[in-house]
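User: What would this chain look like folded?
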Amino acid sequence: MTKTVVNALKLAFICLGILLCLIKKAKAQDPTIDSAGEKLIKICHTDSIRKYEGKLYMSFLGAVVIEHDGIVMNCDSAHLFSEKNFVEAFGNVHLQKANGSNAHADYIKYTGNNNTAFMQGQVQIIDGNNTLSTEELTYNVKTKIGKYFKWGQLTNEETQVSSETGTYNGFSQQSYFKNNVIINNPEYNIESKELTYNMKTKVVRFLDESTIITEKSTIYTSGGTYDSKNTQAVFHTRTTVENEDQILIGNQITYNDKRGFGEATGDVVIIDAKNDSKITCQKAEYDKLTGQGNVSIDVRIENKGGQQILTCEQTQYNKKTGYAKATQKVVLIDTAQKSKLLCEVLELNEFSKFMLATVNPKLITKTDEDSLYLRADTLISMRIKDSSQMRWIKLKSADSKAKEQYSFALLHVDSTYTQSDEAKEEPRWIISNHHVKLFADSMQAVCDSLVYSQSDSIFRMYKSPVMWSKNQQAHADTVWIHTVNNELSELNLKANALLVSETGYTGYYDQVSGQYIDAYFIANDIQRAHVDENAESLYYAKDEDQQYIGLNKSESASLNILFKEKEVNRITMYQNPKGLFIPMEQLTEAQKFLKSYQRFDARRPKSKAEILTDTPTSSSVR
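Assistant: Here's the prediction, encoded as structure tokens.
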């Protein structure tokens, strides 16, 4: 019995040892964790199992369910490579993660050690509102980053993004797309070589040549961002924005559609096909809500296909009111009128066509024969038909303590004002005020106020006007100068008129005075004159050798004078004529001049350069 007990105990210890070994081995080889601590892929269900001699994998067939690290994968069949901890799933493969993301494919190779799935055939990742579709994808289930190289499409609500290659990031929601990138959205379409798109913020970042097409515009850019949620666009490379009527180009462009505010900088070009205009500058801003625009630095504005060209340093414009203001080194060229305006401040209104130039303005008008140079403290160009609206208004100010400011009403009309017929050239007035000087080769003039009318080509001069033409000087209370192609054709001296002609001898002048004098010219040479009311004349007679022999003095109610070679040739007197001849040797100094005689040589403009360099003593308009 003792021997039997000993044998039994011996057998029990042997069994216990085997059991301890099995327990120890089982503990060392947990079926869900390998020796390196990596979680192992587990087959939870299958209809059948096959193990092949010499093969590194086992096959599972029918309704296969695979689990690993929080994911569940279903498929028709699978090969499990236990030693390398990866599985190949075939047929109707569906991968689901605990956080709700899903993947579908015809084939998935899933590696447990790095949580990476290589998918092929009708691949689809469904991640919340995002759906990624492609034919081949490498996808990390843990990081939710997937890469494809054989075309793919990401759908996010109403937005679809497709490209040849791409990287999807489900965590950051920032995905990368390259080569033949196309974004389709009900509000816009994009074609690009390379970009990123954030599914959460709806921000597109452009990394290469891209085209954005919206209902109203097309944008070409190579770098920047487009925030469709906040309608904010920022482009930091040279970008072109085209709409139905306009083209905007700039090195940097920022635009917010909700605020209606846009800004462009760096070699900016704005082309307006509807209005046939072009603007170039270094900076441009526009506020759609207020209609206010501003362009600055090296500004050049071309209208009517280059017929009108404006250059300056800054221009402000309000589309709603039509008011514009150009400042600093302003030059306005009108090729049709052959004119150039220079000033420091130019204000105008698009609707009334009213224009005001201040701060040392100069106007140059050219013809084939001559050029006319004009300067004044202020220059106004306006339609003659608007003369009844010529009045001052008080400008509104948000600052109640600000000094009161006044301006011309025609500068501050709006689109309701009577529009002009663009196809019809409407006659205008050019109004010059204060310190007016005029120079042309054929004539020169000064006055305090001048009005030139395009309807009759007459210069109307007021307040101490004086006009010179070659060897003649004319002045009166009011002077009208008629021109044809910048050539003097007629002169009207109104009230206290005096016409003086040089004789060729210093200190001797032919003189005609009266209440009114009308003189007529051909090729800028005086031909005849008519003097009315209190007519007086002094002219020197010559003998056959063209030597002066004496002074003819005459008085009458009116008289006619004929000139020959710029000198008095014959005088005809009407009503109560009186005449007196004084030989040269008997002529006294007092008898050489009429009572109204005056010379204004010091006021006479000497050259075109004098007009261009002259600076006014006063240049305020308001």
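The first strand starts at residue 42 and ends at 45. If you want, I can go into more detail on any region.
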